[in-house]
Amino acid sequence: MAPQPPKSLLRLLNDALAETPPGRTIWIALSGGLDSSLLLTLAAQVCRDARRPMRAIHINHGLQVAAQAFEAHCQTLCDTLGISLVTANVAVDVQGEGIEGAARRARYQAFMAHIPVGDTLWLAQHQDDQAETLLLAALRGSGVRGLAGMPFRREWQGLTLLRPWLSVSRQTLADAAHGLSISWCEDPTNRDIAFDRNRLRHQVMPALQLRWPGAARALASSAQHAGEADQLLAAYAAEELATLMRGEHCMDATLLSQRSLPRQRLLIRTLCQQLALPTPPQKRLDSLLAQLAAANDAQVKIVWSGCDARLWRRRLYLMAPLKPLPKWEVEWEGVPGQLTPLGRLEVSLAPPRRVTLRWRRGGEVITLKERGRRDVKRLLQEQGVPPWERERLIVVMQDELCLGVIQPPANVLWQAEGVVLAPTSTQPKT
């Protein structure tokens, strides 16, 4: 009689399967190691029994001589199980981060590039991985979110990431793999204690387990508790944040400054997460909070990788860094779809005429219906358009006459008397 896989592992996979809507494909992240090879083998059985589509994806980082052997093993295993395999070769750019972090970033970029939006990716991380993740986060001085480790379920870039075996020990998976005579590849770098996670795995965790046999389970449980606390904090913060918002990227700095420092930190991190922006390092965050009481006319800018924070007129703006604008000027016939350095201009001009589109330079004057000649700079000040946005406005010029001011792609701020600048885009005005 053929050996049977542990029912507990199959049950967890069936529970994970229930998290995926019918018609969506289950993908297995297959490295070729013990954990993912076992996951692929058992997931193939579960998906076959449930008549659910399943595929596998292998990321070849090209970082070691054994990389091709890993890829060949994954292909052989998939062929044996009748599973379609996608192999993605990635280039790992280590600039500004360690090799582990860079490889992880390249891996997830490959997932996003090859897995259709709406599908579900199963990852083989287990209880011991979770314990190591918590310890690494604690050693970095992480807050609640970092201490929560890896979530069982996460929505990311249109994909659903699931880790069905977070509650299962490494030893349980190893016993199951041996019992089923599953083959896998041993990664030679897994013994290299120059990597932080390997040092924890081979030197720290064995010592902890010797003194406290349930250490991995306890640490993973702590991560779960931290995850629940983080979810509650996120829910409360989202409700409070809604009362402070003055636009999609902007919150009331005066009201924010009236909160306690811990609440201020939580609210700013929550807004970053809502906007899919990197959360600030502690020192940058402290610098930002120290500026909340800046004068009304002050222009404060605090930056960290992937994000700009700006304070102006008692408003706090969080945004992705703005790219420098090239010199630009173009003739326009008033037809929608004109290409600009900020994308297509979804505005039409009536009556049609040949005009010039260019960036606002300062000194422009426009004649408005019932308001007469107005300085565009004064109009921008009155309307409260932030200084960095003023630089990215397009003016419609006929010789020295300003016919309109447009915020790309389709927000017409002002149009001269007798001129109709009509948005043709469905995008909301700001």
Unreliable residue stretches: 426-430
Determine the mean pLDDT: 91
Distance between the termini: 69 Å
DSSP strand content: 15-25%
Largest sheet: 6 strands, mixed
Number of helices: 14
Helix content: 25-40%
Radius of gyration: 28 Å
Strand element count: 21
Shape: elongated
Strand order of the largest sheet: 3-2-1-4-6-5
Structural class: alpha+beta
Describe the 3D structure.
This protein is an alpha+beta fold and 430 residues long. Helix content is 40%, strand content 22%. The chain has 14 helices and 21 strands. The protein has a 6-stranded mixed β-sheet, with helices on both faces. A 5-stranded antiparallel β-sheet has the order 11-15-18-19-20, with no helix packed on it. α5 (127-139) crosses α8 (196-211). The protein is elongated. The model is unreliable at 426-430 (pLDDT under 50). It is found in: Cytoplasm.
Topology diagram in text:
Elements: H1 7-17, E1 26-29, H2 34-50, E2 54-60, H3 67-81, E3 84-89, H4 99-114, E4 120-122, H5 127-139, H6 144-147, E5 153-156, E6 159-162, H7 170-179, H8 196-211, H9 215-242, E7 250-252, H10 253-257, H11 261-274, H12 282-290, E8 300-304, E9 307-312, E10 315-319, E11 329-332, E12 338-340, E13 343-345, E14 347-350, E15 355-359, E16 365-368, E17 372-375, H13 376-383, H14 387-390, E18 394-398, E19 401-407, E20 411-415, E21 420-423
Parallel strand pairs: 1-2, 1-4, 2-3, 4-6
Antiparallel strand pairs: 5-6, 7-10, 8-9, 9-10, 11-15, 12-13, 14-21, 15-18, 16-17, 18-19, 19-20
